[in-house]
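Handout, page 2. Input:
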Amino acid sequence: MQAAQELEPITVEDYLAGEPLSEVRHEYIGGVVYAMTGASREHNTLAGNLFAALHDHLRGKPCEVFMADLKVRLEVARAHIFYYPDVAVACDPRDTDRYFIRYPKVLIEVLSPDTERLDRREKFLSYTHIETLEEYVLVAQDKAEVTVFRRAAQWQPEVSRQPAQMLRLVSLDFSLPLSAVYEGVKV
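Output:
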């Protein structure tokens, strides 16, 4: 993530109006926008593998899976925030907006050197305020390592590192071996 592009705070309405017209995606935190950097091949492959497996698993069920360009909208300490998770699953019928969701069940971030600290700290703390979020997943791209945080486990991390181990999303009754998560990625 890059430094703030605007010195003056912008309104949520101005951000939402401008974002679909922008060639660059921006996250929004309390009136300040941050340009998103491009993702690596590995990053895209990992997010794509997870999206494809979840999309297949959720076919015919009341949940939807989204990838990269759909924002999550939340409010923390009265500050409006919009993040772009790499993969999101929403099952709540209240989510009817075309450009963001408010009630995700699962959020997945693929870590990169530029975003890992943000994903592990700021986003983790922000996401855990979402009433409907059941699981938050961090996927390393430089090594085979997936960390799952579950509300039911008081957000304690569960780390998997072996190809035969399973990524389990209990809230979706979903399992995928790490070998499938990392298919096409050299780690």
